[in-house]
Amino acid sequence: MLKNKLLSFMVAMAALLYSSCSVTLNGASIPPDMKTINVAFFENTAPLVVNTLSTSFTEALKDRIRSQTRLGIVRGEADATIEGTITGYSIAPVSIQATNNTTAPIATATRLTITVNVKYVNNKDKKLSPDFEQSFSRYIDFTGDLNSREQDLIRIINQQLTEDIFNKAFANW
Fold this sequence. Notes:
alpha/beta, Double Stranded RNA Binding Domain, six-stranded mixed sheet, elongated
């Protein structure tokens, strides 16, 4: 009898908790009155320029905001603005293998690094989402030929960079 009452109590408590709780998994802390954001085109000022990088990075940032917030992306005046430049695009060896005495060592792994400088301005509630200007940098190590993999590597780094920028602007952790 006591066992049945305890079980009934636990089922009732679980039902109560289930019906009264909600969880947001993206962790975004967007001010309630913020409705729009202007994501400016990120010009590539890096010494080494890839023609498609500015467009692919800017679009990746817009896609992240579209998919994880309720904000409308607009041109011109907005409740918040994200702007910046791509300041670095570099390729460097990270692992070198010795060869015989007559040839130079060769790189067995290479690192592609992209750096962006970002300025975020919130024209609404700065407590939930304060302004910042910061440099973000991410890299990926790879082996083999860059030319055949460059666009995929850029896409991966863009995902990482846009996540970092999104978290800085909206996660407020």
